[in-house]
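User: Okay, second chain of the day. Same drill as before: sequence in, structure tokens out.
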Amino acid sequence: MSKLDFFKAKIEATISPMEYMQALKATPEAFVIVDVRNAPPQAMKQKIAGAKHIPLSQLKERIGEIPKDKTVVVYCWEVWCNMAAKAAIILLENGYDVLELSGGIGAWNTMNFPVEPVV
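Assistant: Same drill. Structure tokens below.
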């Protein structure tokens, strides 16, 4: 794969927090956002407002909770975390339309976008 092909594929498979907020405002019914972090609530403390929390370790068993008629946006901790990429593979293999949120919740928090407590 060439560098050009790599970056084109990366852009096609990801969405930035700003792009997601714009898309969500335009067509909120088109998206579902899924937090795939594996951690107890006391370690996570917060999630993106409206996100469904399905830890990567439970994704295969709970995949039916995710609607197939929406674009699924998955996220994890930060740029160093690959749980969202692993979740994207599972979802793509099962026929979902998936994007990875660039930078995870770390980037989201940097932008001061809405969050809510993890329960």
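The mean pLDDT is 95.

User: Thanks, on to the next one.
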